[in-house]
Amino acid sequence: MIFFKKKPKLLKVGTPAPAFSVKDHEGNRVSLSDFQGQRVLIYFYPKADTPGCTIETKGFCAKRADLGEGLAILGVSFDDAAANKAFAEKYDVNFPLLCDTSRAMGIAYGAATRADAEYPERVTYVIDRDGVVEYAEKVTDIEAHIHAAAAHLMDDA
User: Fold this and answer.
1) Of residues 88, 108, 86, the one with CA closest to residue 96
2) DSSP code of residue 124
3) pLDDT tens-digit profile of 4-55?
4) Contact (Cβ atoms closer than 8 angstroms) between residue 75 and residue 49
5) Beta carbons within 8 Å of 72's beta carbon, 6+ residues apart
6) Which member of 53, 72, 73, 126 is catalytic?
7) How far is it, in rounded angstroms, from Cα 17 to Cα 89?
8) Which of 63, 68, 78, 132 sits at 20 to 30 Å (Cα–Cα) from 149?
9) How many Cα atoms occupy the beta-carbon half-sphere of 30 within 13 Å?
10) CATH architecture of 21-155
11) Is 99 a catalytic residue?
């Protein structure tokens, strides 16, 4: 008998982004409503301080200045605050890393299908100023994805 793992589905562009309220690596509660009137790039990464996640996070840190002040960037993993804090400090991360330890945000955003998922899928969204998904990507090539997300943000600013 063959069992297939259910794959998460990306949110559709043009749909409202799910509300969330999650603590970041500093222990601050962060909610989507905190960014009302602002664009938000949300990217899910599997595990803090692993090679691919480090490339992705450092890439968004490097692009942040180019993307303008009106954009918030949020990295999200299932890691606890201590792991994300160590990761943020090691690489001077200049935005919040959210600690979705319940997996509720990951499930709502199509990065996971179950609350017992070990890691989220690598997905990225841009939420517009009205809280609507304007960009959604299932990441297969980390470096290309950083450039594609940044290009989308600069083209549609």
Assistant:
1) 88
2) E
3) 556 778 999 999 999 999 999 999 999 999 999 999 999 999 999 998 898 8
4) no
5) 35, 38, 39, 40, 41, 95
6) 53
7) 29
8) 78
9) 22
10) 3-Layer(aba) Sandwich (3.40)
11) no
